[in-house]
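Known limitations

Structure tokens in this collection are predictions and should be treated as such. Users comparing against experimental data should check residue numbering before alignment. To illustrate the layout, the record for Putative restriction endonuclease domain-containing protein is reproduced below. The input appears on top and the generated tokens appear beneath it.
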Amino acid sequence: MIARTKKKLTYQDYIGFPDDGNRHEIIDGDHFMNPAPSVYHQAVSRRIQFQLYTQIELKQLGIVADAPIDVQLTPHDIVQPDLVIVLAGRSIITPTKIKGVPDHLIEILSPSSDYNDRVLKFNLYEREKVPEYWIVDPFEHEVQQCLLGPSGYQRSTHESRVRCSYLGGEIEVDLSAVW
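Generated tokens:
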């Protein structure tokens, strides 16, 4: 659901949104609100996070954070991705949010977020040069991996395993353990 405003909203507007159990985001200055994710959505997120956590965070290679976490990409773009990976040595994590472009963002589709995740966030993440973006489809049991190249995102679809492009390609998610 979109609530159109006359002025482009910023992080200051964002922090004034109600804590009402909905997911509030600002994309290109417009306010978007979605209901809390389903139990299945959360289970899929947790299973992916667990695999990434054991391969990244436990080895002190970075952090794997889950929603709700604020990611401020620009003054007018504040999102709450399902999963966020920031590799070690980056200084974009503040006490209240991630301010800057993470190394990897993951969105898990739900009926209420499908358009935002596939179109609005895809365009936003590509424009802001997020190196890797996954669109996880829990209904079709596949992951669309979007890797940033010179002319934008290059997409590939995975149904059994998906390997991250960073850290030498050593990080992999076994999708049979996700669904």
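For this record: The mean pLDDT is 95. Residues 145 and 156 are 5 Å apart (CA to CA). Please report discrepancies through the issue tracker.
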